Amino acid sequence: MTTLARHTLLCCSLFALCGALLSAPARADETQWQKDHPRREEVNKRLENQNKRIRREEKNGKISKAEARKLRREDKNIRQQEHDMAKLDNGHITKQEQKTLNQEENQVSQQIKNGN
Prior knowledge:
0% strand
């Protein structure tokens, strides 16, 4: 390999590396912003609160382990739906998707409240 070819290869490699390093923080920030998008955050906080309620109701004997397992599975499915919806829209969920997810969470919330 000639000196010119080595120099060209080294310059191209350094240029590519610098480009990757400079763009990495921007992508990381964008991902954090997408994760913390207000609609997504609201849905996920509700899921977190419901999980706490399930644990509390199970601990207090108001729901059985089987019922708690079923409710957690339903919440997990809602969380997966939220993730899939966000994935389709560059990290966001629409107002209609948020409404749909909230309605599903309301159903699970009623089941927790009713103990079934």
